[in-house]
Write a structure and sequence with these properties.
By secondary structure, the chain is of the alpha/beta class. It has helices at about 70-80, 95-110, 150-160, 175-180, 195-205, 225-235, 250-260, 310-320, 325-330, 330-335, and strands spanning about 5-10, 15, 20-25, 25-30, 30-40, 45-50, 50-55, 60, 60-65, 85-90, 120, 125, 160-165, 185-190, 210, 240, 265, 280-285, 285-290, 295, 355, 365-370, 370. α5 (about 195-205) crosses α6. Residues about 375-380 have low confidence and may be disordered. This is N-acetylglucosamine-6-phosphate deacetylase.
């Protein structure tokens, strides 16, 4: 926490408060936001809640499927340097023993809580293996399976799994959605060949989001809208987008933003390639090649991204989308989907996990519990 009894102002002209950009500076005392709307600082700048990323497979040279606790903590520090103060480590489809080893490591890190300069782990996102064989993307087909209640129950015991991506059309999928939703686990539909009717059945059962909309799912057709059409038409369904210039055309992003106003969320689907130059990396044993920022597997299929969430925010703003809605999509909206009232908010009494952004929405400063982050580069653990 900050120094006892000492208040500091962030030196901003406005802040994202309750989904609106409110004029004035922000005061922080002992790691907590104490006042907003103070006389604005000269020089501009915007304060916002720390960014929240729901889909991080790896980052800054680390693949989470094979990471030990030190490497996971390196990812948490690297994410924080890009303005992310809370995140979901995400595990794609893999051999069950590898998934279980990764879950144990992530469970250990989550239970210990964040160290100095680390973004908070809010739980684990299982992206698979209950996916459509027709929409696997880069997920290894040999490890795909239909929903398996016993396997899933075992995995839920190993780590705080808070989100699961699955295909609703699979045998047993709807019963699995109902069980997960009843247990408080958020279900997102993705990697799916679902018709619109099958997608709506998944939402009726308790699913509440779609994973990287339009990617690895049935297409939107004017007579069969598929999973993306059902999600865009369905009130209350969270729509997750990867805005990196490769996953979605610019006009598609604008259409999604208009159709799902107030329920869009920016995610990265980050891999070990994120925050790294082009080169060769791996994702759960799958070889990746990054060229001009696009991450592909040996078959040329997009395989996650090299995106960082602060860059996604800037990309979305550059498309002409409203600044407040863009910031909301990377902060309060993902936090609300997880049911976390302690994350993604900037208001008096809230923990001061904050970012200060310049006029282009680039990160100027990061505060974790009111403490400014030291952003010097760090070595990746061996």
């Amino acid at each position: 926490m900050g120094t006892t009894g000492v208040s500091r102002r962030l030196g901003v002209a406005r802040a994202l408060v309750g989904g609106r950009l409110v004029g004035g500076d922000v005061e922080v005392t002992d790691g907590v936001v104490t006042r907003v709307g103070l006389p604005p600082a000269v020089g501009g700048g915007t304060a916002a809640p720390g960014l929240v990323d729901l889909q991080v497979n790896g980052f800054d040279g680390v693949d989470l499927m094979g990471a030990d606790a030190d490497a996971v903590r390196h990812v948490a520090r690297a994410l924080a340097s890009h303005g992310v103060t809370a995140w979901l480590p995400t595990l794609i489809t893999a051999e069950p023993a590898a998934t279980e080893r990764a879950l144990r490591v992530l469970g250990e890190v989550a239970a210990a809580g964040p160290g100095p300069g680390e973004a908070r782990v809010l739980g684990v996102h299982l992206e698979g293996p209950f996916l459509s064989a027709r929409r696997l993307g880069t997920h290894p087909p040999e490890h795909r399976r239909d929903p398996d209640p016993a396997l899933l129950a075992r995995w839920l015991d190993l780590a705080p799994v808070v989100a699961v991506t699955l295909a609703p059309e699979l045998p047993g999928a709807l019963a699995t959605v109902r069980r997960l939703a009843a247990a408080g686990v958020r279900v997102s539909l993705g990697h799916s060949q679902a018709t619109a009717a099958e997608a709506h059945a998944g939402f009726d059962a308790g699913a509440s989001a779609v994973t990287h909309v339009f990617n690895a799912m049935s297409p939107l057709h004017h007579r069969e809208p598929g999973l993306p059409g059902a999600a865009l038409a369905r009130p209350g369904v969270l729509v997750q987008l990867v805005v990196d210039g490769h996953h979605l055309a610019d006009d598609v992003v604008r259409v999604v933003w208009a159709a799902a106003a107030g329920r869009t969320v920016l995610v990265t689907d980050a891999t070990a390639a994120s925050a790294q130059p082009d080169g060769r990396f791996a994702l759960a044993g799958v070889d990746l090649t990054v060229r001009d920022g696009a991450v592909r597997n040996p078959q040329g299929v997009l395989a996650g991204s090299a995106l960082t969430l602060d860059r996604a925010v800037q990309n979305a703003r550059a498309l002409g989308l409203g600044e407040a809605s863009v910031l909301q999509a990377a902060t309060a909206s993902p936090a609300a989907w997880l049911g976390r009232a302690d994350v993604g908010v900037l208001e008096p009494g809230a923990r001061a996990d904050l970012v200060v952004l310049d006029e282009a929405l680039a990160v100027r400063q990061v505060l974790l519990a009111g403490v400014p982050l030291e952003t010097a580069p760090q070595e990746v653990p061996a």
